[in-house]
Design a protein that fits this description.
The protein is mainly α. 78% of the residues lie in helices and 0% in strands. The protein is built from twelve helices and no strands.
Length: 359
């Protein structure tokens, strides 16, 4: 059954995503219509907080099953709208910060229900998100807040994959390595205030170790030979882990950056290559639990996944060679891959609903 009451939450997330993509393309040099109205400085907050934060908040609210839990995606979604409507106001950051606080409370409730390392890592990610929003609210520049924001989806995904590791035989010492990487990441974020050089490299090292751990122990590698959805998910996961290694390696080399080619490469490698790859391949699994609409796997899904990674490779190559045209076209095709993902997902869902009603 379609969960219509959850659609408004998704709509606010999609508005934030669309505006964030638009702003990103204008920032990178595309002369788009109404570019003067695009909230260029809001690109990062709209993408990470307004879209990803709202979607994850909605997913966790559904998992908890309590009405008050929906305050998290409600507040972050409204925060994205406020950021667009009132770009010079504190309303957007304030609503988003309140939403991340509500989300942390949701995670605390889930942790009480199901205690263990999985929920602990998710809780650390939620705390990073709240910490980043508080720093943003206090006046920190976005480039210094972005590592805190990015740690939120990264740790959430790492925890979700760890939950599936119960189906794989993994040495206890290997788990200690993963927990150590999470601790190093958190310590690096805290240290990045007074010691940005040290803190940034600690976070980068944590990302690299977590990605290598997942490449070694995640069940995904074992499912590459399976047909259908399992293989699709496995390919997206392995590619995503590779991009996280790339992102961490860049920052290990260059250290903290506030703008420019290295900044573009490091954060888009992890956010597009890792986070969005996870979104693409998990949508057929997560979307039905949130909306009540089945998303049967179709081979056409490989289209947006391939375009995402190929265009990101073009973009990162442009960053490495300091060649703006490659970077710009890579960014445009990144946005096209995300648009294609939503078109494929929605059309598949609608066709499934039509078939179900006819039957």
């Amino acid at each position: 059954m379609i969960q219509r009451q959850r659609v408004p939450f998704l709509m606010t997330a999609l508005i934030a995503l669309g505006a964030g993509l638009w702003a990103g393309l204008v920032r990178i040099g595309w002369n788009l219509p109404a570019a003067a109205k695009a909230p260029l400085a809001a690109h990062g907050p709209l993408m990470v907080v307004g879209f990803v934060g709202t979607v994850i908040g909605l997913e966790r609210a559904v998992a908890l099953g309590r009405k008050w839990a929906y305050s998290a995606p409600l507040l972050t979604g409204l925060g994205g709208i406020a950021l667009l409507a009132l770009p010079s106001s504190i309303a957007g950051p304030l609503l988003m910060t309140a939403g991340s606080l509500a989300f942390l409370l949701v995670m605390a409730a889930l942790a009480r229900r199901q205690p263990g390392p999985v929920m602990l890592i998710m809780g650390v990610g939620a705390a990073c998100w709240l910490g980043g929003n508080l720093l943003w609210l206090s006046g920190w520049p976005v480039y210094r807040v972005v590592p805190w924001w990015v740690a939120f989806p990264v740790l959430t995904i790492v925890a979700e994959r760890l939950e599936l590791s119960r189906f794989v035989s993994i040495p206890r010492t290997a788990f200690m390595g993963l927990y150590g990487a999470v601790a190093v990441t958190l310590a690096g974020l805290i240290a990045s205030g007074p010691r940005p050089e040290t803190g940034t490299r600690m976070v980068a090292a944590g990302f690299v170790v977590m990605a290598l751990w997942l490449l070694r122990y995640d069940v995904a590698r074992r499912r590459l030979s399976e047909p259908g959805l399992p293989r699709f998910v496995a390919i997206g996961l392995v590619l995503g882990y590779g991009w996280m290694v790339v992102a961490g390696s860049i920052q290990l080399v260059v250290g903290p950056v506030s703008s420019g080619y290295a900044y573009d490469a490091a954060y888009h490698a992890v956010f597009l290559g890792f986070v969005f790859s996870m979104i693409f391949v998990h949508a057929p699994i997560v979307f039905p639990s949130v909306t009540g609409v089945d998303i049967p796997f179709r081979r056409v899904f490989y289209g947006h996944l391939t375009l995402l990674h190929a265009s990101l490779l073009l973009r990162i190559a442009g960053d490495a060679r300091l060649w703006l045209p490659w970077r710009q076209w890579g960014a445009l095709l990144n946005a096209a891959a995300i648009a294609l993902f939503f078109v494929a997902t929605v059309t598949t869902a609608v066709s499934g609903v039509i078939v179900a009603r006819r039957s």
